[in-house]
């Protein structure tokens, strides 16, 4: 038993009237001790559920991020005139609405915006559809790439994926606790704003509950992150909803944490107020392939809505109307589909240990 961890547990687990918040340093230490197995299983399980009941603070989330930065993987900076976007999406996946973020990632990368995603397999508590399954359905298998080869793919295509079972196996034991407890611990909140990139980054994270937005802003501020976008998205993701007004917080300054609140109404831009329901993985992949082929449909509308916003937010387009027009151009002319084919080709080359080089005939 760790007496140090016992003290942390006593602080967060003392009840409504006497419980105390951890400092940033204490939260970092507690997180490292859980990941490294220095606390006992009883201590870890008790801490995770007690901390959930207490609710985390922004300072505690900052400490957890410090621990992930120290122990976890990072993609290294690449030559780009734009900060890399890190998309923070719930690791336990989607169960009700069709995800569009892989299309968004391909669309942004097609115009030179680097983008990083991260996650694992079907995980508790929802065991919903994870990003890794969608990518595999599209022909891109990130699961066996070591970090160095993922770095190569990222440098060449502008898209990187940190796959936790391969790149951050220390997190495996935490998922077992999460399954046994049946509840998301605060680590699940922290993961949304984790940025596994060593260079200049723009953190984009989804959230569900309004208090989470405030905690994110505090945590990011403590860590010196001044470029961020927080989206009250579908099932806690970065995907903008179509059935309601999209509520978004935007950082407005590169030197401070000034925040602008944005409300985007789908009807104002000609979109119907309907989210695409999630069917089987095979059905979703087929629908995404139709989007990449430029075919009209409900998922295409979702792709345009999201693509237009993120083209504007990343600075590629000057406003939403221009972003929407650019998203439509990229999808209907085959540029996004060409980016997927480039990605598939390069991943297969790397997996086959073929010398990694740029082909003059590769799609642009």
Automatic annotation (TrEMBL):
Taxonomic source organism: Nostoc cf. commune SO-36
Keywords from UniProt, A to Z, are: Amino-acid biosynthesis, Aromatic amino acid biosynthesis, Glycosyltransferase, Transferase
**Per the database record, which ranges form the Glycosyl transferase family domain?**
97-335
Q: Does the keyword Cytoplasm apply?
A: no
Q: In its UniProt entry, what is this protein called? A: Anthranilate phosphoribosyltransferase
Amino-acid biosynthesis in keyword set: yes
Which residues does the UniProt record annotate as the domain Glycosyl transferase family 3 N-terminal?
Answer: 7-70
